[in-house]
Amino acid sequence: MSAELHDFERYAIGQSVSRTEDPRLLTGTGTYTADLHFDGMAYGYVLRSPYAHAHIELLDVSAARGLSGVLDVLLWADMAASDVGLLPCNNPIKSRDGTPLIKPRRPSLADGTVRYVGEPLALIVAESLAIAREAAELIELEVDELPAVTDFMEAMADGAPQLHDEAPNNVALDWEFGDADTVDTAMRGAAHVSRLVLGSNRLVINPMEPRAAIGEYVDGRYILHVGSQGVFGMRNVMARNVMNVPDEQMHVRTYDVGGSFGMKSAVYPEYGPLLLAARRLGRPVKWVDDRSDSFVSDQHGRDSEAHVEIGFDADGRIVAGRVYCYCANGGYLSPGGPSMHTGNIPRNFPGPYRLPLLYARTRAMFTNTTPIGAYRGAGRPEGVYYMERVLTQAAHELGIDAVELRLLNLIEPEALPYAAVSKLTYDSGDFPGILRDGLVHADWDGFEARRAQSESQGKLRGRGFACYMEATGAPAREMGGIRFEGDGTVTMISGSLNYGQGHAGTFAQIVSSHLGVPFERLRLIQGDSDEVIAGAGSGGSRTVISAGALLLKAADEVIDRGKQVTGFLLEADAGDIEFERGRFRIVGTDRGMTIMQVAEAFQTLDAVPAELVGGMDVRLTDDAPPSAFPNGCHVAEVEIDPETGEVAVDRYAVMDDFGTLINPMLVEGQVQGGVAQGLGQALLERTVYDEDGQLLTGSFMDYTMPRATDMPDIAFASRPIPATTNPLGAKGCGEAGTTGSLPAIMNAIVDVLKKERGIEHFDMPATPERIWRALHT
């Protein structure tokens, strides 16, 4: 076994390799948080507010505490008495006048006032979940109900119900980017200005696996078992902000995670009470959310409105852009705060176009609704949606073909690197080429024949496209670790975290291609905060760029250390050792050893020089590479049944530039999943609150998720141009499917509505009822 070599061809970077975790997950042997069971475990149930806005007059838990089998009932007073802190929002963003983001206190259990339906009131812990639920029914709650406001535009009006005294008119932030006067001057001098008001509907995120957590307190140390997007950051926030203990007294474990899309990156209210209950009882305490509670307790996504303007000169070239955005925070700030609707606008709205001037202003309001957090793209889809919808509108107003207007304004390859108005520098790409190739790939010229065929069957056919470019997540400190184990396996350690992306195989391709370690020998650790020394987790399509780059850097150090170890083993100078395709060798000779033979031989030594202690094991941290710029062209064709208003996405084609593709099969899967979520928002999904703040779309009976039958076959194609800003040349792909699909699908729908009824804009979601009304009223 020690002479076993890596199959460089089969597992090379760029090869499609099946996900290594799939056999385990598909045969039911995965380990999700709810699967865990510990001796002596107790069970928690969270009592939530049925009111959107109310002062608590009475919260009597005495009867619940007296029920047989109930072990504890925690209120906020218990948390405060034990020095458990508030849920933090560490966002440093400031308003345009220099004042910081207003961050009202957010207790994990309600303290006097509730501000959204679903806000936690109490944690009941019992010998069984059934007993805990029964005890919750015995809790007496009396409130002074207050007026509620759920619409962010209404929330900032004079006289609206106020959620937090420190946020007049419910405004948490009034942020801006760019120079308003300069852009105003450019707009006044423009030959034409196109304008649209665009909404981004609030969504319930609904990952396949509901949230769950288990709290333990062992030997003076808290242990939180929880689904997350990164244990290092979760550990730090839980230790420093919530439980108020040194970092080393907090241990976070994450196992398999059944989807997240940004939602499980946050620290939630339930986690602190679970840990305190475990400490008070000396027993593990398990809590698993049900789907009904998830609808109101998990962070929601999107919920914004943008007033967008683009000015053009007489030749149709863009001279300036302006975006006024209004968005909801919900009842409290999530950890990310309103970042989705601030910094991600200037980072993504310009896209691949020459946009010389941009002014953006965002106002973020508190509303009596579930807090808003990151959801796939976290502002990137909105920024691209704004640009692509207005460009399509502008082409109509200017009498220019929509493709020609894009080609007129796209950045040419010879202009790269390009200093964008966003203060980012685009390093690589061929944006006009991607558009041209994407239209050929989609058979753009064959559309009229398909439209005629649809009309012959009584259907209305439209087409739309979008050129997108997005900036991946901002760089952060990351780690890379490689450890040779005594059983012949090799452990990779990363501060990222897999929640469906297939990290284990992807990272194994990177490391095995570089080191020649047999692919099957590689294992991945991400979900143990005791092993991780840095990392911002997974999000923002940056995992391969950051975590992959750090593992590559660790692999380089493994080679350097391996030359020293091999020199010691072969009694040669380390400077005379070379490394190629998984093998160390004395230069000019055939004397050498595979990397696995070196590891095995080193582990049998009784004593080694001090400088070789640790062998080839490496664990390092560094700043991750800067953002990259995935881009592409999405083309959608829809068929609408005028009798029912039903919209079917009949054809869908994608031409993407993701730079180096580590595993093309997984990349295509990421695009498919992203398009599905974009289609859901464009056609089906929308949360609806009544005037009292009750969520009317609180179950799958009322909230429509896309099904497999709603999805078209996606014709995926790739035209990769490697990034120059990271050693792998990767650009990121996790959110691009959503980013490109929103404008492509909505442009196709508007194509129909404009032709049939002269309607130039239609807001998401394009449900059958709304489309039917647009066509017939």
How would you describe what is shown here?
This protein has 777 residues and is α+β, with helices and mostly antiparallel strands. 29% of the residues lie in helices and 23% in strands. It is built from 20 helices and 30 strands. It has a seven-stranded mixed beta sheet, sandwiched between helices. A five-stranded mixed beta sheet has the order 7-17-16-15-8, with helices on both faces. Helix 10 (344-348) links the parallel strand 16 and strand 17. Helix 11 (380-398) runs parallel beside helix 19, helix 16 (543-570) packs across helix 17 and helix 18 crosses helix 19. The termini are far apart. The mean pLDDT is 96.
Shape: globular
Per DSSP, what share of the residues sits in E-state strands of 2 or more residues?
15-25%
- Sheet having the most strands: 7 strands, mixed
Report strand order across the widest sheet. 3-5-1-13-10-11-12
Structural class: alpha+beta
Number of strand segments: 30
Count, helices: 20
Radius of gyration, whole Å? 28 Å
- Level of helix content? 25-40%
Note poorly predicted spans. none
Mean pLDDT: 96
Distance between the termini: 74 Å
